[in-house]
Predict the structure.
Amino acid sequence: MAKWPSISKLRGKVRLAWFLLLLGALGLPACQTTPPQLPKNTPLTGDGYKKAMEDILGPIWYRAAAADPDVTVGTVKLTFEIPATGGAARNLQIISNTAGVVDGRIARVAVRQLRASPIPEAILASEKTDHIKFEESFTVFDDSSPTPAPVARKR
């Protein structure tokens, strides 16, 4: 007669299965292999391309900064390059940081999560390069100003 596994062993295997499923689901977006395409109304200039990539990068940074309670007031300035094929940023360097260490980490992580669109040939030809250089600033402002007292409405 076959011996059944104990309930505690089954619970452990079920927990492991759920953990692996969750891990796979969370890791799937990080495995994005096709960079997003540029919006159709993007001007075919270096500045137009930069604006489109900043529009993608901004929400990544805002989500990360909003989720971390340890951010401090200040600005992180960094530089990086996007290669002609798009994809991940390269040559990432922080050039100044008036905020805290956590803010610098958040800015670096946001840039590393950016998956850039390929640079259109027209832009590469006009810029005469195989990449576009970025200099970005990420700023956390002081929002500790006092909240005004409520004003009674007239009826």
